[in-house]
Amino acid sequence: MAFWWPLVVLGVAFAVCRFLFMLIPHSVPSIDVDASDVLEDGSQTKENSYIYIPRKGKMAQADKVQCYEPATMKYLGFCEALTPEEVKEHVAQAREAQKIWASSSFRQRRQFLRILLKYIIEHQELICEISSRDTGKTMVDASLGEIMTTCEKITWLLSEGEKWLKPEYRSSGRSMLHKRAKVEFHPLGVIGAIVSWNYPFHNVFNPMLAAVFSGNAAVIKVSEHASWSGCFYFRIIQAALAAVGAPDNLVHIITGYAETGQALVSSVDKIIFVGSPGVGKMIMQKASETLIPVTLELGGKDAFIVCEDVDLATVVQVAMRGALQSSGQNCAGAERFYVHKDIYTAFVAQIVKLVKSISVGPPLAGRYDMGAICMQEHSEKLQNLVNDAQDKGAEIAGRGSFGHLEDAVDQFFPPTVIVNVDHTMKLMQEEAFGPIIPIMKFSSDEEVIKLANDSKYGLGCAVFSGNQKRAIAIASQLHCGVAAINDFASTYMCQSLPFGGVKHSGFGRFAGVEGLRACCLVKSVVVDRWWPFIKTVIPKPIQYPVAENAFVFQESLVEALYGLNVWDRLRSLINVVKIISEQNSKSSNVKKSH
């Protein structure tokens, strides 16, 4: 007791001191970001606002990216569509800055994250409003999908990022027992990202945070459908980098169309792409020219499975959030609903009741549950999917209502519940990216597993059951990258987890340890464990010119190291020692004769 008592006291004292240290807030400076040109000052009216009317159909690429509010078609301005030469210049500038940033300390990188986190928390409304204006989503959807996810990622990096980027020691095996084996994680250089429009804030910050924290530079091409907000969010990043003394040009936001993205792929050291499978294939083809690593997060057709033993009222609310995530602009959203036949009628009735209570309208013009569709002509695609399903026997069970719509009516689509669906319908096979809820019944776990796997996509799934083991068993048999048990999309809020899919949903991962290390050159290193006392020496029998019994020596050495029987290994070890002794003896005799 006398020996252990001081150790206990020291342990308690250390824990108390560490807890008290945690209570001391970090000194985090505030940054000033000019937002005067992105906020409405109240003086704009319908009469003095320019309503943007984009041309329909496929257009030739222009030298300007025109920006407008999809919910009102109010003109926001334009961004430059960068040429390939301009893109290469941006990457060159980032590459020079990265050479300096590569030697930055983790302390400096953490301070950068804290400054960003402080600004985000203090300016949530501003960030969400800009996202809402540029994409048509509601403020609540922006908070859930933009603010919370980004804050969670920053917090995880602050807590664990350095640990996962430090050298990781591995076992050295039997033949290299005298060595230390480790993995080092070095910056790749310039990380390129081409991101989609559905989360303009988070989709910029997500790759940027991982790249910069791991010592890289980042050049991010934002979508032509959400360039206005991306350019403002860039100001936040610039201000935070300047506050920690980071080199200029470490992070770039670029705007443009397809040729801009192609030029980026050709210039960087790794590319991260968030978008459609079709464009993802083109990204891969372009990346093959320079053989850079690629991470693809592509489409999804996530299955939402509801067993008969659930709390129906709770699941219905979760199902609605999953279906209408991001104002009907799904990202890993639920697009196929499979409900057990015993509760199918009750589930449909409750979903229809909830859908009919949902109002759709300009998100900043009142209290609306759902906003606008961001992409031009996407409502027409959604209606075509509904029409195809109806032609094949499906029925509309209920739809939401429109709010006060004067302009931009083509940019809205009401939440729609479809029943009597099957897998012959495009709605159950093609990614909708919209607020359509197709509900199909199933009779057994085996049947629903087969249905859920009948898709070219494999991003995520959600399985609900009163029996958790049953839900886990179903999810474990679904061919997808992420799974939520009795919840929806909770995997992405756990930023320690990797995110990504299989099949046409892409490959590679971002987020988590895997995503962070994917921004690194992973280098395997072996060093002498007891240097300089024990050094590597080639055994005499296999030194050049090799001895007559060199192969016999190798046979004995292999069995001594890896034999399954301990007595055979011991016998072989004795033989190894014997051969080496004989060879050394011969060498000594040769030296004496000379």
UniProtKB/TrEMBL annotation:
Residues 61-525 form the Aldehyde dehydrogenase domain. InterPro entries: Ald_DH/histidinol_DH, Ald_DH_C, Ald_DH_CS_CYS, Ald_DH_CS_GLU, Ald_DH_N, Aldehyde_DH_dom. The active site is at residue 297. Gene3D superfamilies: Aldehyde Dehydrogenase, Chain A, domain 1, Aldehyde Dehydrogenase, Chain A, domain 2. Keywords: Oxidoreductase. GO terms for molecular function: aldehyde dehydrogenase (NAD+) activity. Signal peptide: none annotated. Belongs to the aldehyde dehydrogenase family. This is (wild Malaysian banana) hypothetical protein. It comes from Musa acuminata subsp. malaccensis.
